[in-house]
Amino acid sequence: MSRLLGLARPLAILAAAAAVAVFMIKSRPQLEARNVATPPPQVAVRPVALGTVPVTVVAHGNVTASRELELAAQVSGRILWQSPKFEPGVVVEAGEPLLRIDRTDYELALAEARQALASAELALADARALRQSARIDEAEATVAAARARIARAERDLANTEITAPYRAVIDEQRVELGQFISTGTAVGRILGADRAEIRLPVPPRDITFIDGRNPAPVDLYAEGGSPETRWTGQLLRIEARLDSETRVVPVVVEVENPLDGNRHAQPLPFGLFVRAEIPGQPVERAVELPQDALHGRDVFLFADGALERRAVTVARLSDGRALVTDGLADGERVVTTRLELMFDGMAVALLDD
């Protein structure tokens, strides 16, 4: 009997606990079901205002001289004099002497040629006086040869002085004072200082915006320099070829007298790497958008609280901007925010609302 009472007591405790739990569950107030609405993502928009959009083509290139020349000796001899200006980077004027070669042998050659001419003319006079026609012909030929030797001797004597053929910058100096040089020895290299050229690589898609028929001012800036460091050049030509390696079209800009401090705020040195801003032909009834607003060849518009996908025509991409020429109308709002998921008809809200 006591054994049965021991088993009944735990069962009674369990039954009482279960009754209390059922009572608590039934007496708990019922929770009201609520619909939690997820707010639509917010997006920024750019209103469309079609108009005339100016185009500037930006390219980079090195400043080079429009003409370069290797200076070579036309006679042989020892260098007896060298101009202090015959140093790399120095500007020399047209006709300015740079080097002088020993003249002694050439002065002697000129004197001997003149002496030979005097003897030939005397022989010709004797032949004419004696009316010896055979000797006259020979003497006349001798006189002509003597005069040619004089001309050559005078030319060689003049070539003992090497001068600058035009206003130029000394680019290289390859000989020294006292050095013996032979005919044809390269003594230096000069760069013409009258004009500078910048050959700019422009992609074919941007060439269509440049009018190469008329000269146009081009602004040049030193790459990495201050915005105030600016020069103005002229669009010279668009070369009628495509570079086979880079697949770009060379556009040549010219700067007159690049080293003239009176013409420019500061000299434009050869070899400088510059950024060129070439004015392009403006585009009518177009709009510029951030490039991030493009989704392939489409954009998304904000229309009545939802996204509307629209195909557009993009004429140019440059510096993070897209030039759209077709597919949009005035007043439409282009979504400039990029969401992780975007599809036609998706509900969105304006960021400013």
Q: Tell me the total number of β-strands.
A: 24
Describe the sheet with the most strands.
Answer: 6 strands, antiparallel, barrel
As a percent range, the share of strand residues is 35-45%
Question: What is the CATH homology-level superfamily of the domain at 57-66 and 195-279?
Answer: Efflux pump adaptor protein, beta barrel domain
Radius of gyration based on Cα positions:
45 Å
Number of helices in the DSSP assignment:
4
Oligomer: single chain
Runs with pLDDT <50, length 5+? none
Encode the helix/strand succession as letters.
HEEEEEEEEHHEEEEEHEEEEEEEEEEE
Instruction: Give the CATH topology of the domain at 57-66 and 195-279.
Output: Elongation Factor Tu (Ef-tu), domain 3
> Residue share in helices?
10-25%
The level-1 CATH class of the domain at 57-66 and 195-279? Mainly Beta
Task: Record the strand order, biggest sheet.
Answer: 4-13-16-15-14-17
Task: Give the overall shape.
Answer: elongated
Architecture of the domain at 57-66 and 195-279, CATH level 2?
Beta Barrel
Terminal Cα separation, in Å?
Answer: 82 Å
Q: How much is the average pLDDT?
A: 88
Structural class: alpha+beta
